[in-house]
Design goal:
Blueprint: H1 5-8, H2 21-33, E1 39-43, H3 50-62, H4 76-82, E2 89-93, H5 100-109, E3 120-125, H6 132-143, E4 149-155, H7 163-166, E5 170-173, H8 179-193, E6 196-197, H9 199-209, H10 213-226, E7 229-230, H11 232-238, H12 242-255, H13 259-271, H14 276-295, H15 310-319, H16 322-339, H17 345-358, H18 370-375, H19 380-398, E8 434-435, H20 439-449, H21 451-454, E9 460-465, E10 468-473, H22 477-482, H23 485-499, E11 505-510, H24 514-521, H25 538-548
Parallel strand pairs: 1-4, 1-5, 2-3, 3-4, 6-7, 10-11
Antiparallel strand pairs: 8-9, 9-10
Bound molecules: adenosine-5'-diphosphate (ADP), magnesium ion and zinc ion.
Length: about 550
């Protein structure tokens, strides 16, 4: 069975963890001296080694023959821990177990002494996701746990952790891993895998991974699916860096105050299954770069971009007043925040980009302001476009988001091809979807008969509903593959041969961070039961948004 590289190369000792010496030295010293704390909080961005270090620590402290503060990885405790067969090391994903009852259950579990180990270790991942009540239920036990219990909590969002918890933990901040270190590690991994990886290609992956080793290894995985001779060109294609070109085009359109062009680019990226939240984050990154280029052109060292992109960034910076750039970053930040709670992320982003193109957001701090729209005749075109978009979206909503037959688009740079009857599943009612249990066998069979398809499914999962199959993968090439009728039939045929289930339609979705979801949600990946469905109808949401943007929308009675 193929194992994703980032799992295969998860460090098993502190010595193997790179770029976090302040953490690994302190933890090994504590283990050697026997002076460990009862609760730890590991913070830092994703893929920097938090979960890895938590697992190593849990092993090391219980290991029968620790070596210089590291686990031996040979005794029965270490081996069982590696196989997740040790009841005394308990990993909890707070993102899916965040209720008070979960917390109470955990608290009750702490009464019992460890079965085989010296310490019972609770590793609570994404601890910021716990509800306030759950936090409170845990507080007492974290404050004064029984001597045989230790907690390691991990979070990517420190600011969301309650201060009462913070003050009870020993905190370790994991740093983003330096690009050079990531590149070096990638070269080692490639070497062990017998893959040729050019130094430039490794550097490019490292840059794209933005400090996260997991992302770097996932990109390498994707590249390997294409070739075992990895060049910069392959990386650009596999890492979706081709999309970056569009991100810059979008920045340019915003700088040129051209909403029509901007909306066209968003639409193209959307059709290619680009994640809108990710796009918003990328815009923030690039506008930050533009801000630096505009305000401190000599500080290119803190501009995070590929060398070839620097010129474009400088050109855009010259076109824009600094105040506009800063207002844009502010607007994008708010948009990103709103998107995290929103049903219609695309509209959020469109609204924001239109506001940026028209300068609506700069004229008043309280985000989009109605009177400025009405007073400024120059913006009437923007308003018209926005009205048109809202109407079109309304229509799509009233049609129930049927798979749309998008116009065939000009293929540009190979990234965009015609979108056919392949739709993403985001708009479908997920509560009706059932996990498709035959998926693993189907992928296995695919890797035998159609390896090119299976190579895009190393990290994937599938759901079913009636006669449709819903496939989620972190590899957007799958979606491109499935645009060919032939590949779609191969997939359906294989699924049918393996499972006996006949599906007539396939829906696909690219979920860039799927590996993370699968990593932490194995048990619950099936159906996210309809989580307190909002009472607002999509139309309400649209009208509210239009109102926020100051767009007069006629609400014809239907
Ligand atoms: N500091 C590191 N040194 C070496 N590999 C790392 C490091 N951080 C992350 N990785 C790689 O990324 C994968 C995911 O790391 P993980 O510890 O789960 O990250 P997170 O900080 O998100 O919990 C690991 O399996 C490993 O392959
Ligand atoms: Mg983790
Ligand atoms: Zn051991």
């Amino acid at each position: 069975m193929y194992q994703a590289l980032y799992r295969k190369y998860r460090p098993s000792t502190f010595d193997d963890v790179i770029s976090q010496p302040h953490v690994t030295t302190a933890l090994t010293n504590q283990i050697i001296s026997g002076k460990t704390a009862h609760a730890y909080l590991f913070t830092g961005s994703r893929g920097t080694g938090k979960t890895t270090c938590a697992r190593i620590f849990a092993k090391a402290i219980n290991c029968e023959h620790p070596v210089n503060g590291n686990p031996c990885n040979e005794c029965s405790i270490c081996r069982d821990a590696d196989n997740f067969a040790l009841s005394d090391i308990i990993e909890i994903d707070a993102a899916s177990n965040n209720t008070v009852n979960d917390a109470r259950e955990l608290r009750e579990g702490t009464i019992y002494t460890p079965e085989r180990c010296k310490y019972k270790i609770y590793i609570i991942d994404e601890v910021h996701m716990l509800s306030k009540e759950a936090f409170n239920a845990l507080l007492k036990i974290i404050e004064e746990p029984p001597p045989h219990i230790k907690f390691i909590m991990a979070t990517t969002e420190l600011h969301k952790v309650l201060p009462t918890i913070l003050s009870r933990c020993q905190r370790f901040d994991f740093r983003r891993i330096r690009t050079e270190d990531i590149a070096e590690r990638l070269l080692q991994v490639a070497d062990k895998e017998g893959i040729s990886l050019e130094a430039d290609a490794a550097a490019l992956i490292a840059k794209a991974a933005d400090g996260g080793m997991r992302d770097a290894l996932s990109i390498l995985d994707r590249c390997i699916a294409f070739s075992d001779n990895i060049t910069g060109q392959i990386v650009s294609e596999a890492a979706g860096i081709a999309d970056r070109e569009y991100v810059f085009k979008l920045c340019e359109a915003i700088a040129d105050k051209n909403p029509s062009e901007a909306l066209g680019i968003i639409s193209r990226l959307y059709d290619c299954s680009k994640d809108m939240t990710l796009l918003c984050e990328e815009l923030i990154t690039q506008f930050r770069n533009i801000m630096i280029a505009a305000s401190a052109p000599d500080r290119t060292d803190v501009i995070f971009c590929l060398p070839s992109e620097l010129e474009t960034i400088k050109e855009i910076a010259e076109k824009m007043p600094l105040a506009d750039i800063m207002a844009d970053i502010d607007a994008l930040g708010k948009c990103s925040e709103r998107m995290s709670r929103s049903l219609s992320k695309r509209i959020d982003l469109e609204m924001c980009v239109i506001a940026m193109c028209s300068g609506i957001h700069t004229s008043d701090n309280s985000s989009v302001n109605k009177s400025s729209v009405e007073n400024d005749r120059g913006d009437s075109r923007t308003v018209e476009i926005l009205k048109g978009r809202v109407a079109a979206l309304e229509q799509r909503i009233s049609e129930g988001y049927q798979p749309q037959n998008t116009r065939s688009r000009q293929s540009a740079g190979g990234a965009i091809t015609s979108a056919e009857r392949v739709t993403d599943t985001s708009s479908l009612n997920r509560s009706k979807l059932k996990a498709f249990s035959g998926w693993d066998s189907a992928v296995k069979e695919l890797s035998r008969v159609y390896p090119s398809i299976s190579s895009t499914l190393t990290c994937s999962r599938a759901f079913e509903s009636d006669q449709s199959l819903f496939v989620e993968t972190d590899n957007r090439f799958f979606i491109q593959l499935l645009r060919q009728e032939d590949n779609k039939n191969k997939l359906l045929e294989t699924v049918s041969n393996v499972s006996g289930n006949k599906y007539t339609k396939v829906f696909t979705k690219c979920v860039p961070n799927l590996s993370e979801l699968i990593d932490t949600h194995v048990e619950t990946a099936s159906v996210d039961a309809d989580s307190s469905a909002p009472t607002q109808t999509p139309l309400d949401v649209l009208l509210k948004k239009a109102e926020e943007a100051g767009v007069p929308v006629e609400t014809s009675a239907t």
